[in-house]
Amino acid sequence: MATILITGATAGIGRASALLLLRKGHRVIAAGRNEASLAELKTAGAVPLVLDVTSDADVEAAKAQVDALTKGRGVDVLINNAGYAQVGPIERVSDAQWRAQYETNVFGVLRMLRAFVPQMRERRQGRIINVSSVVGRLALPFFGPYNSTKHAIEAISDSLRQELAPHNVFVTLIEPGAINTGFGAIEHQGFLAHAGEGAPYAAQVAQIAAFQKQIHPNAASPQLVARKIAKAIGSARPKARYVVPFLRNRIFIALAQFLPTGMTDGVVGRITGLERVKV
Questions:
Q1: Contact (Cβ atoms closer than 8 angstroms) between residue 191 and residue 87
Q2: Confidence at 54, pLDDT banded by 50, 70, 90
């Protein structure tokens, strides 16, 4: 049995992962901001932890609670899952929105790493699973803030993996594509804020919103991602990256790896429907 801490555990991928890992017999510390959802996870057997990853004080308090629970040993697995998507045209997203996006998606991860990695390194055992996205490999238009945070998580994870390998601590990236969670509805509302009549990029944003609304109902389930996370935890030597779902998104990522940039842009335009938009 492993002791596993999951951030953003109250919904979507985090919740699905918490429930699956509980069924597999692990001790799960479910961290998040929604106390009602945490209470439900407690009923399922998780240890609830109220945590806002943007707060230094919250992370310090979480570390103290985990130390008390584990008698100073710390966690075996840290799953950095908390995050959200700030969408919109680059020039129309405010500084405050950019900072908030980075505070959660990047600095929140860094706070958790600083809090929990030292114990893993010192005892020469541990796993870190960072939930990224396929847009961390191939950026989509009008997802700029979110794209950039996931590119940052990819680079941070690649560096950290190499730094911790000699200490027998594994670092793994989970790269989901579109997942059928509440994420999609929130993104859609974000797009609509930039799609009003007369707004710059209105036609393009309306099209990307329509594309996003179309794909999410048919997207993969969060349970599929949870199973991939469980696989990484159970593997003797986990991969550096797990793409979910594999075939659909592996092709997507291959565009960025093997096609010239201009061709990749063209394919993205066709897939999203943006190439048909008149501006």
A1: yes
A2: very high
SS3 173: strand
Give the Å distances, CA to CA, from 215 to 97, 137, 212.
Answer: 25, 19, 5
* 11: Cα separation from own chain's centroid: 12
Domains in the chain, number? 1
For residue 146, indicate whether it is catalytic: yes
Which residue reads 């993996």 in tokens? 161
pTM over 0.90: yes
CATH value at residue 75? 3.40.50.720
Residue 215 lies in a domain: no
Say which of 84, 102, 146, 201 is annotated catalytic.
Answer: 146
What letter would DSSP give residue 80?
Answer: E
The answer to whether residue 278 is domain-embedded is no
Examine residue 271 and state whether it is found in any structural domain, yes or no: no
Token pair for residue 206?
Answer: 């309306």
Q: Per-residue pLDDT tens for 176-212?
A: 988 887 665 666 577 767 666 667 888 898 898 888 8
